Amino acid sequence: MYIKSPPTWLTLLCLSFGFLNLTNALYGSSSPVVQLTASNFKSKVLNSNGVVLVEFFAPWCGHCKALTPTWEKVASVLKGVATVAAIDADAHQSAAQDYGIQGFPTIKVFVPGKPPVDYQGARDAKSIANFAYKQTCSHVEDVPATVLISFG
């Protein structure tokens, strides 16, 4: 049995789409970074009970690509303390528009009950994690003295 090969142009077209698909995602399935979409943004970020750091990125952005290993390190460092997530703002433009994203990468910190805060600090893991810890501490409510006495 003879199977005819597809035309060369079709093969190249299929390969290019496959390559584009691989380059669109900065974070793979094994990454500690939560991958957001327009459809899961509300459940993963807005309805979260904890602090969520969100990177709005574009897959073609060189600064976004450079931030990827740092963002993954932040996700590992903050595991159990805060959620570290990312959303492709090109693919999910509605989410980017909702938060006035004008440049990439943009990092916003979402604390329950408060408006999102733009992170303007250094783009290294220690600085980002320290900022997140401060936001987490501001989210913790004071424990009433009567509760503390009951633990005594």
What does this structure look like?
It is a single chain. The protein is α/β, with parallel strands linked by helices. The chain has a single domain, classed as Glutaredoxin (3-Layer(aba) Sandwich), CATH 3.40.30. The protein contains six helices and five strands; from the N terminus they run H-E-H-E-H-E-H-E-E-H-H. The protein has helices at about 10-25, 40-45, 60-75, 95-100, 125-140, 145-150, and strands at about 35, 50-55, 85-90, 105-110, 115-120. The chain has a five-stranded mixed beta sheet with strand order 1-3-2-4-5. The longest helix has 17 residues, at about 10-25. It is globular and about 35 Å long. The model is unreliable at about 10-25 and about 145-150 (pLDDT under 50).
Give the tags.
single chain, 152 residues, alpha/beta, Glutaredoxin, 5-stranded mixed beta sheet, 6 helices, 5 strands, globular, disordered C terminus
Secondary-structure map with pairings?
Blueprint: H1 8-24, E1 34-36, H2 41-46, E2 52-57, H3 62-77, E3 83-88, H4 93-98, E4 106-110, E5 117-118, H5 125-139, H6 145-151
Parallel strand pairs: 1-3, 2-3
Antiparallel strand pairs: 2-4, 4-5
Helix pairs in contact: 3-5
